[in-house]
Design a protein that fits this description.
- The complex is a heterodimer of chains A (278) and B (313).
- The radius of gyration of chain A is 17 Å and the shape is globular.
- With 278 residues, chain A is α/β, with parallel strands linked by helices.
- Chain A starts with 7 loop residues before the first helix and ends with a helix.
- Chain A contains nine helices and five strands.
- Chain A has a five-stranded parallel beta sheet, with helices on both faces.
- Chain B has a seven-stranded mixed beta sheet, with helices on both faces.
- In chain B, helix 1 packs parallel to helix 7.
- The chains are: A alpha/beta (278), B alpha/beta (313).
- Chains A and B meet through helix 4 and helix 5 of A and helix 3 and helix 5 of B.
């Protein structure tokens, strides 16, 4: 992993900042989904600060890589990431969910630079991503499409329509990342409508599958730099994560799907995150 | 009247014509290449037709992705499946996201006849017209169909084209220029106005002829754009007298409702809304079903006559 030695501290700190900011946003708005925000922070950081070929100064560049946050409820994390990456001023983050703000509770295409698809209702991102990947292939373009889905979200049938189609069309320019934290709104995924054997399911639909620790930035980097994991197939990265990662009293607790931290809880959470900074 | 034609032929020809001139135009379908009349398109542009299989949510979602990447997708499916199965994708992925997709709802209304109410699409206008930023068009004949396809391709934004498989006569001249949002006067008249869309337009004209022989002067307005509705033409019609609306659709939320929304706000007059009266259609051929619900020249005539008489008494 020494090849990443120079960038991992930077990305780790970046992820910490995104966690801090997203929690502050949710606290200030009194609304949001902190569990899913924290779960996705390392994946978002790795993608936006190293993997995606995007230029915040030219958010509509036709040759850019596309990223869709299908689990649109993790909007605070995505907005914090986009602001940190320079897509819009950090100061705008304080408008999160305020009246008439562009930073809607769920990301809306066209309102905020860097948002490629309106999401929120689950099971929408993958079909859109498949369409984008086909468009790139039609144009013989080099740009790639990435979509981050929740795991509970995979209970939506529309995903499997898209997964089947991407396998059929052998879209090796498409990467789906599953934020596999094992929890959904009410309980674990497996006690609700179980997803396992998840990797096997994607494989049988024609995808190349790799399982990684979704909080191990070095592992994520290594995975994303070796795409597609199988030639001629779309790639599914099952990123094993913990909902609420980084704050001990939020981590792996279903009730923090959309619980809002109190003032004291926010203070404790930020202190814990800052304590993790080296 | 004149020869009858299936509007899907005009649709297919117009689309091929457009695709020849604009490489951004692509077609997607849910394994309905034949019934969407895309066979020739597939031969001419094999790399620009995507058959997504029997998966309407994915059909619309993928179309959104293609549009976001600069294509102009025409997403084709039987209207009953396209609108009902993928309504959230239509709302979120197309309209809310302003993705430039043209939805082509084939075989709408009760054109599938005895296949049954599962295959009828008599709610599609109500569903789609309730969605912000979505243009809804139900053309009346082959000429208007071709015009609507071209206009949809030209405009930037999602469009729902409600197309039929029921053979209809031409009601427009060959050089008719279709304009989104503009209702077309097909008959002048001073006693009553019949406002129709889609396959009911030719029947409205026949009804006007029947009324003329009784001394009742009926205007006919083809209101093919259901959203945005032509407020001006409807208000003008209301200023002349009562209005009958005719649609191959439930009377809950379709053309009649759209017209009534204008009438009650700008020029209240008596109206009769003809359509399917809030029931699932029984088994029968398309023609049988239209007769069953009084969606015939005679049925329209009777409704118009009773409105005119009520007004005169």
């Amino acid at each position: 992993m020494h090849i990443y030695a120079d960038i991992i501290p930077r990305l780790t700190d970046q992820a910490r900042r995104i966690r801090r900011t997203s929690l502050q946003m949710v606290h200030a708005a009194g609304l949001g989904h902190p569990g899913g925000d924290l779960s996705a922070a390392d994946i978002l950081t790795t993608l936006f600060f190293h993997v995606l070929r995007v230029d915040p100064a030219h958010p509509q560049d036709p040759e850019r890589d596309r990223f869709i946050l299908s689990k649109g409820h993790a909007s605070a994390s995505l907005y914090a990431t986009l602001a940190e990456r320079g897509f819009f001023p950090r100061g705008q983050l304080s408008t999160f969910m305020k009246p008439l703000a562009d930073l809607n509770g769920h990301p809306a295409r066209g309102k905020v630079p860097g948002i490629e698809a309106s999401t929120g209702p689950l099971g929408h991102g993958l079909p859109i991503a498949v369409g984008m990947a086909i468009a790139a292939r039609m144009d013989r373009a080099e740009w790639r499409t990435f979509v981050l889905t929740g795991d509970g979200e995979l209970q939506e049938g529309s995903n499997w329509e898209a997964i089947m189609a991407a396998g059929q069309f052998q879209l090796d320019n498409l990467t789906a990342i599953v934020d596999r934290n094992g929890l959904q709104l009410g309980d674990t995924t497996e006690r609700t409508i179980g997803l396992e054997p998840l990797a096997e399911r994607w494989r049988t639909f024609g995808w190349g599958v790799v399982e990684v620790d979704g909080h191990d930035i070095a592992g994520l980097l290594q995975t994303f730099e070796a795409l597609p994991v199988e030639a001629g197939r779309p790639t599914c990265v099952i990123a094993k994560t913990h909902k609420g990662r980084g704050v001990s009293f939020i981590e792996d607790r279903a009730e923090w799907h959309h619980r809002i931290p109190t003032d004291a809880e926010l203070e404790a959470a930020l202190a814990e995150l800052d304590g993790g900074a080296q | 009247m004149t020869d009858l034609a299936d509007c899907r032929v005009a649709f297919g020809e117009a689309l091929i014509d457009l695709a020849g001139a604009d490489p951004r135009i692509v077609a997607l379908t849910n394994d309905s290449i034949g019934s969407s009349n895309l066979t020739e398109f597939k031969q001419r542009f094999p790399d620009r037709l995507v058959n997504v299989g029997i998966a309407e949510q994915n059909l619309v979602g993928m179309s959104a992705g293609l549009a976001a990447a600069g294509k102009i997708p025409f997403a084709c499916s039987a209207s009953c499946f396209l609108t009902a199965r993928a309504l959230e994708q239509i709302k979120v992925d197309l309209a809310y996201s302003r993705n430039n997709v043209k939805l082509c709802g084939m075989s709408s209304g009760m054109a599938y006849g005895a296949l049954g109410a599962t295959h009828h699409s008599i709610e599609d206008l109500a569903w789609t017209r309730a969605i912000a930023d979505l243009t809804v068009i139900a053309p009346a004949d082959p000429i208007e169909t071709a015009g609507a396809v071209r206009a949809a391709a030209r405009m930037d934004g999602p469009v729902f084209l409600r197309l039929s498989r029921m053979p209809v006569p031409a009601v427009h001249a060959a050089d008719h220029a279709f304009e989104v949002g503009r209702a077309v006067s097909l008959r002048e008249g001073s006693d009553v106005t019949i406002i129709a869309a889609g396959v009911m337009v030719s029947r409205a004209i026949e009804a006007a002829d029947l009324l003329a022989s009784e001394g009742i002067s009926a205007a006919v307005l083809n209101c093919s754009t259901i959203r945005p509705i032509d407020r001006e033409s409807i208000t003008e019609a209301a200023s002349r007298g009562p209005i009958v609306t005719v649609e191959e659709h439930t009377v809950y939320g379709g053309l009649g409702s759209a017209v009534a929304e204008v009438v009650v706000s700008y020029h209240p007059v008596r109206m009769r809304l003809l359509g399917v009266p809030g029931v699932f259609a029984p088994t029968g051929s398309p023609e049988f079903l239209l007769q069953h619900f009084g969606l015939t020249p005679e049925g329209i005539r009777d409704a118009a006559r009773s409105l005119v008489r009520a007004d005169r008494s």
